[in-house]
Amino acid sequence: MEKLARKQVQQLTPYLSARRIGGTGDVWLNANESPFNNEYKADFTRLNRYSECQPPQLIDAYAAYAGVQPEQVLASRGADEGIELLVRAFCEPGLDSILYCPPTYGMYSISAETFGVERKTVPLTADWQLDLPAIEANLDKVKLVFVCSPNNPTGNLVKRDDIIQLLEMTKERAIVVMDEAYIDFCPEASCVDLLSRYDNLAILRTLSKAFALAGLRCGFTLANASLIDVLLKVIAPYPVPVPVADIACQALSESGLARAKYQVLELNANRAYLQVGLSMVAGVQVFEGWGNYLLVKFPDGDALFKAAWDQGMILRNSPIENCVRISVGSRDECEKIVGFVRNFYAYTQTA
């Protein structure tokens, strides 16, 4: 069967998600999931009927939450499907390219590679900001420029002035895709207000993080109506299952939004606790983060990662040397990982 696959697929290395990597334990801080397990009731009486392609109640609810018009919203199976739709809709295989700025989320590359679309990379600067001159020099044949803010795995925000410069630079040339999967933890940094000024802007959102619905697989693309209309040409006929729409609407209701706001406040407080606690360990550097995770540099990141893994504390390795990404969990989980790191280095220093 491998020989029958397309050449790009034969050569493809799949994205190593947290679940594919595995692990066993009772402290899971590797997938940027929420520690809150909220209860919902779903209507299972209509499962003999197909769902609507874009359920109006869901679209209206998220449009109201995001501060846009319903015609500017597309619902999909997670933000990952939004990435694929953009690549499929705007990039000609073998001709066009995407551009992204590592270190960043790995699915931009894999989605493009799967469809035979060339990938260009312009690494972030030393302070993890956009290298605008290098991006401009590499825009030939680029149709999509992916920017993640807060960036995964570094956690930093991309400068708003640089985003505006990038949008100006790419006018009539390419679409800037702002990945705002973690923007609910710092909503003031969203680019959603720029939709009124730029037709070449698309924004990816998700209910997986701040809304504690990673298992629901519900995401959104925000853009002007003309861009959304293009995506509607390539999306599957029934991308939003009936129970998904029901639960998502509950999460976006007045009471659901109040709960999400409270939980975000608690997670941001836990992030501050985690940042301070880890920063007090000699030799450990914690980078400022704006999502529900922190990037932490250890004297030996691989050793720390493995030791935590062996103790049932599942963290996430990073492509950045000696760095480990740690999700913000419950206060109990944060206390456990801070205590583990302190004990680990106290032991290694005396051993």
Automatic annotation (TrEMBL):
GO molecular function annotations of the record: histidinol-phosphate transaminase activity; pyridoxal phosphate binding
Enzymatic reactions: L-histidinol phosphate + 2-oxoglutarate = 3-(imidazol-4-yl)-2-oxopropyl phosphate + L-glutamate
Keyword annotations from UniProtKB, A to Z: Amino-acid biosynthesis, Aminotransferase, Histidine biosynthesis, Pyridoxal phosphate, Transferase
One Pfam family of this chain: Aminotran_1_2
EC number: 2.6.1.9
Highest taxon of the lineage: Bacteria
Domain Aminotransferase class I/classII large: 34-338
GO biological process: L-histidine biosynthetic process
Major enzyme class: transferase
PANTHER family in alphabetical order: HISTIDINOL-PHOSPHATE AMINOTRANSFERASE, HISTIDINOL-PHOSPHATE AMINOTRANSFERASE-RELATED
NCBIfam families: hisC
Name of the molecule in the record: Histidinol-phosphate aminotransferase
